[in-house]
Design a protein that fits this description.
The complex is a heterotrimer of chains A (about 160), B (about 675) and C (about 200). With about 675 residues, chain B is an alpha+beta fold. Chain B contains 22 helices and ten strands. Among the domains of chain B are: about 1-155; about 395-515 and about 625-630, no CATH class; about 520-620, no CATH class. Classes of the chains: A mainly alpha (about 160), B alpha+beta (about 675), C alpha/beta (about 200).
Chain lengths: ~160, ~675, ~200
């Protein structure tokens, strides 16, 4: 019996055999209305080709990618808005097919992440900077207890004279 | 026989690496000169052994020795020699051997050229380097042996995919690896410094040439890969935020931050914690990249064939190296007290800002790349984090850095006058304003963001030039004075000028080619003409023909501009037999103003063909800019001060420091 | 009187923990990467699980009496196998479907995806025809409605006509024994097993 990895490789081969993705350009028949075609192409760029690796359906020559491109064009001809056409595909394949991750509970850390990291870093730098004492010479490392006592003695001596 | 020789060389190298990883380190701790002295010869021997192993594999490829499994799987007797050679590293096992080769070459370079380093420190550096080698050698010998035999040997190999026989594809991995692995040197220096418990200006001076070299190579490798994708993938894309691309970009971002941060350590003895951390992080990201490509954890165009056993091994190695070094950092970092206080507005302040933004950008790319994995592991949901995410987050983060990059070199150390610095950038401001105006007038359509985008690029270039002019007192002092300053100017300053100007060019290239690209997709019949920007494409005809291992259709397009003949483009659509594939080869015409692309697709059945044309203005500025950045790095590298060594430790300033600890170099 | 040294000391203490942060982050990432080795990022789970079978009507293959429609999938638990004559791994799993049909445990329907009718019939004649009904999806549109992205895929449909499970890739004996058959049994007993 075939090992799991081998049979998965076979599946991939089946898909790959139909999906020469990486080295080809998608060239199919555009819609009559240039405005609609422009909309279709913009939507294509937002949808991931499921059988390629990390390409949009616009950039892939895979058969499934082409089928999806035709589907998007049909949806536009049928009167769907951009959002509706995209939703049509997402209903069938899930959020994975969107190149821009949707903002939902699971992706909060993703979208908020960069800003949060930036804020934290700025705060840390500010704290570090203040602790170090800022511009040259204005603040100095605090004295230890010994040094404080020595200072008191010295000053005390000076006063007595 | 050579395969066995190569295998044996690897085994020997492992033993040498084990010795090199332990004895000199112990020797440095105990003060045993003999053990310390073992580091240099060990590093050289290790290098020779791996060179032999690599040579053995290369020999097997060149002679098409199909009794070696690796050669049989990845090569073919009919392959041109160039691709037989590049086939050595075009597979998992061979690429690991290349990784090792570069690792030990850098180690040997430190052993041979690191005469300015104190012996104990150098011994520690080489030991750490050897530890990494031990890990990789073990990985190769136990899970990915390139010298495995295949008996009986097949008559011919299986690796004749014509699509992989391309110079750009073949030769960009060595540059990338030189970059990745080059940063292992900075890592070793950092860990050695942490072990010693001392990071100072001398350390920063020593680390700089190695970091610069690695940075140059990585910049070249990334640029080459991007350029290859552009002309080969056929539709003009050059960056996809693919996980493996990100895996090379993250070390570059961290490495750039490291380079700049080390300058502060060198000049002002400050930012030590951050610099050491960056050195560790940069190499950790390189290792992470190595893992991501080979483990199947992320889907990517570039990924090698995956194997869970290998994945676990690399991950274990990764975790040991990274957590080990970060633990050492956590323990030692608090004890490193910095000198050099500085005002927020100062060159140091500018470099802190630079560090901040580059590190955050790097963290963002890491977050986006690994997020699908995180989500899948936690909730089982699958999502895709594609270019829209990265463009939305990375761009805004880098923007302030790019603007500030122009002002930074004008700021003084310790405390700077921002107004004064900006006043010294008068020319750059004027140039940027002019660019803004000109672009506004000339750009008919396209996103409005392109206008400030171009102005930004011009600002960066003009500021770099103006800073150079200021340094030379150009036009303000007699020409003789300027010339004198030119000759005495430190090369690293010129490196900065080139690198920053190059970055400005890259920005202009990116903005222009993205914003003002013209793309036309249509059905054409013979004789039809389509306008693409200023150009007209006329479809002359299409005809079938046979290639060496494919059948194809070739289309001919006559391109003219304003009535004058400009070019003839002949794109093809090919059908390969073995393996069965259909591809389209774009015809590209590179011109001064940009590139013209033509692609021919499927026939519609009634004598017409689908065609696609592009005009991409100024796209080559991207790679020319990268080239200039790399040249800047090289110029900086050639600075004499890197070769003379650290004056502080030798007491050249008249005040010997730590004389008892380190005997003057060798 | 406030003790500046103690204050300074406590602040120093707090910031001293910061160098630990990179280590912690590295460990967390390492943990996730380790978990990631066991995941399969290329397998996209179906979003149609629990939803009704899409509305469709497919004609039969030339030479076969019955096509496949939505109505055909209501009334009993069934399997829908997406296959094609050009698919190599379909051949690997085909004997299992022959055995399944012989055992009569569950009806198996076929969805012939983006294939040529005569080629498909030839393939079935050569390797055996285990299918009750086969729908010919020439353009692949119905496949898209089912969320098909590769071949073979197999869907488990409940008696109410809901998609309750999807298997990606060829079915092996182990998948049948450990996953599908127990699943079918649980369904028939009125339970709601998790795919």
């Amino acid at each position: 019996m075939l090992r799991a990895s081998i049979r998965f490789a076979l599946l991939v081969l089946c898909i790959a055999g139909w999906s020469v993705s990486a080295l080809s350009v998608a060239v199919d028949r555009p819609l009559e209305d240039p405005a609609q075609e422009a909309r279709a192409r913009a939507i294509h760029k937002q949808l991931r080709c499921l059988v390629c690796q990390n390409q949009s359906i616009e950039d892939s020559n895979a058969t499934l990618a082409r089928d999806l491109r035709l589907l998007v064009r049909d949806r536009i001809l049928a009167g769907d808005t951009d959002q509706a056409a995209i939703r049509y595909i997402v209903e069938r394949y899930g959020d994975w097919v969107l190149l821009k991750p949707p903002v939902k509970a699971g992706t909060i850390f993703l979208w908020a992440g960069p800003a949060v990291i930036l804020m934290l870093a700025i705060v840390l730098i500010a704290l570090w900077y203040r602790r170090r004492g800022g511009p040259a010479g204005r603040t100095v490392e605090p004295l230890s207890l010994d040094e404080q006592n020595r200072l008191k003695d010295l000053l005390g001596d000076g006063d007595r004279s | 026989m050579t395969a066995e020789l190569g295998h044996f060389a690897l085994v020997l190298a492992l033993s040498v690496a084990l010795v090199q990883a332990t004895i000199p380190l112990l020797g440095a701790w105990r003060g045993d000169q003999g053990w310390i002295a073992l580091a240099r010869p060990a590093a050289v021997v290790q290098c020779l052994l791996i060179v032999i192993a690599f040579g053995a594999l290369m020999h097997a490829y060149i002679t098409s020795d199909f009794s070696v499994l690796n050669v049989a799987t990845n090569s073919h007797s009919a392959k041109p020699l160039l691709y037989k050679i590049s086939g050595v590293w075009g597979n998992h096992e061979g690429s690991l051997l290349l990784w090792l080769l570069i690792l030990v070459l850098f180690g040997a370079a430190v052993a041979v050229f690191g005469g300015n380093l104190p012996a104990p420190f150098r011994a520690r550096v080489l030991s750490v380097q050897a530890m990494i080698a031990v890990g990789f050698l073990a990985f190769v010998l136990f899970t990915s042996n390139p010298f495995e035999r295949l008996l009986p040997a097949p008559l011919d190999g299986r690796g004749l995919n014509p699509l992989l026989q391309d110079p750009g594809l073949a030769f960009h991995p060595p540059f990338l690896y030189l970059g990745y692995v080059g940063f292992s040197m900075a890592f070793s220096f950092a860990v050695a410094a942490l072990i010693e418990g001392r990071v100072d200006a001398a350390w920063a001076r020593w680390v700089r040439p190695w970091t610069l070299a690695a940075w140059c190579f990585l910049t070249t490798g990334i640029a080459l890969g991007s350029w290859w994708a552009y002309y080969e993938l056929g539709w003009g894309g050059w960056w996809f935020w693919d996980p493996v691309e990100n895996a090379s970009f993250m070390p570059w971002l961290a490495g750039t931050a490291l380079l700049h941060s080390a300058v502060v350590v060198e000049k002002r003895d400050s930012l030590k914690n951050w610099t050491v951390l960056l050195a560790i992080v940069t190499f950790s990201l390189s290792l992470l990249g190595t893992f991501l490509v080979r483990s199947g954890v992320l889907t990517s165009v570039h990924a090698f064939a995956t194997d869970p056993a290998r994945g676990i091994f690399i991950l274990a190695f990764l975790i040991i190296v990274i957590t080990g070094s970060l633990t050492l950092y956590a323990i030692r970092a608090p004890a490193m007290k910095g000198g050099g206080l500085f005002a927020p507005v100062s060159r140091e302040g500018g470099l802190v800002l630079n560090n901040l933004l580059l590190s955050t950008a790097c963290a963002t790319v890491l977050l986006g790349t690994l997020y699908p994995l995180f989500l899948d592991a936690v909730t089982g949901e699958k999502i895709t984090v594609g270019p829209p995410y990265f463009n939305a987050t990375f761009g805004p983060l880098m923007l302030p850095a790019l603007i500030a990059m122009a002002v930074g070199p004008m700021l003084n150390w310790k405390r700077a006058d921002l107004t004064g610095a900006i006043q010294r950038l008068k020319f750059a401001i004027v140039a940027a304003m002019a660019a803004l105006f000109v672009t506004l007038v000339m750009a008919h359509d396209g996103p409005w963001l392109a206008i400030p985008g171009i102005a930004l690029g011009v600002w960066m270039i003009a500021a770099a030039l103006e800073e150079a002019a200021y340094r030379l007192r150009l036009f303000r002092a007699p020409a003789g004075e300027s010339l004198r300053r030119l000759l005495r100017s430190p090369r690293s300053a010129w490196g900065t000028t080139f690198a920053h100007a190059g970055a400005g060019m890259v920005i202009i290239g990116i903005v222009a080619s993205s914003a003002w690209q013209v793309e036309k997709l249509q059905i054409m019949r013979t004789g039809d003409v389509v306008a693409v920007g200023d150009f007209s494409f006329k479809f002359v005809g299409a005809s079938p023909f046979r290639g060496p291992n494919y059948s194809a259709v070739s289309g001919t397009f006559q391109v003219s501009r304003n009535g004058d003949d400009f070019a003839t483009l002949k794109p093809e659509s090919r059908n390969y037999q073995d393996p069965p594939m259909e591809t389209t080869e774009a015809a590209i015409r590179t011109g001064w103003g940009g590139d013209l692309y033509a692609v021919i697709g499927d026939p519609t059945g009634d004598g017409a063909w689908s065609t696609r044309f592009y005009h991409k203005p100024m796209i080559h500025w991207i790679w020319m800019g990268a080239l200039i950045m790399m040249l800047g790095g090289l110029v900086s590298l050639s600075d004499r001060r890197h070769r003379v060594g650290a004056p502080a430790r030798r007491g050249a300033a008249g005040r010997p420091l730590n004389v008892a600890k380190s005997p003057a170099g060798e | 009187m406030s003790n500046p040294i103690a204050e300074q000391g406590s602040r120093r203490h707090w910031l001293r923990l910061v160098p630990l942060v990179p280590l912690v982050i590295a460990l967390v990432i390492g943990g996730f990467l380790f978990a990631g080795l066991n995941l399969r990022p290329k397998e996209i789970p179906s979003v149609l699980i629990g939803k009704a079978v899409p509305d469709f009507e497919l004609p039969p293959l030339p030479g076969r009496p019955r096509g496949l429609t939505t109505a055909d999938l209501k009334g009993e638990v069934s399997l829908v196998n997406v296959f094609a004559s050009w698919c190599v791994s379909c051949r690997a799993e085909h004997p299992l479907f022959m055995k399944l049909q012989a055992s009569g445990v569950v009806p198996v329907h076929g969805l012939n995806y983006k294939d040529e009718g005569s080629a498909a019939m030839g393939w079935l004649r050569r390797h055996g025809d285990p299918y009750d009904r086969v729908g010919a999806d020439l353009k692949g549109r119905v496949g898209i409605d089912w969320g098909v992205y590769g071949v073979p895929e197999t869907f488990l449909v409940s008696a109410e006509g809901r998609i309750v499970c999807k298997h990606i890739g060829p079915i092996m004996q182990r998948d049948l024994d450990d996953k599908l058959l127990p699943f079918i049994k649980a369904l028939r007993e009125g339970g709601t097993p998790q795919c």
